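Title: Prediction job returns without error message
Component: structure pipeline
Severity: low
Priority: P3
Assignee: unassigned

Description:
Job completed but the reporter wants confirmation the result is attached to the right record. Sequence as submitted:
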Amino acid sequence: MKTLQTERLRIRRMSAADDAAFMLSLLNDPSWLRFIGDRGVRSLADAQAYIENGPVEMYGRLGFGFCMVESKQPAGQRLGVCGLAQRDYLDYPDIGFAFLLQHAGQGYAFEAAAEVLRYAQAELGLKNILATTRVDNLRSQKLLEKLGLRFERQIPHPDGSERQLMVYAIRAL
């Protein structure tokens, strides 16, 4: 993905060297752990490996992945992540987002996700885009609906637990 800009945000590719400390914090944030899950990242080295083996690998293979979301004012303050991923258990790429709790409720997730969605449709030509969320993640469900995605179905969580994921979609007509 190329760097995207909105009025308040810069959405850029992640770098293991530059973004590991932030990702270590985000991956261990209580809301990440509750709604996304524990990735077992406990050190800077773990965070660097997570970035290299996740977003960076996906950029090289697919041309998109999860990106760092930074504020323009103050310049470069990391707020969260937003982007696209191709999951083994989904037929189409899915859009996702996660922000540190102190940046919640300020419209950053919607602003970033709307720009990523615009880019995915207009520049990558993606006609079908999915999103998943846990059943109890009402804030994400509301944001997905505001973006124009519609609930389609529930699927078993890929971690093998009894939990379910809600699948939202924008489909080509």
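Comment from assignee: result matches the submitted record. The radius of gyration is 15 Å.
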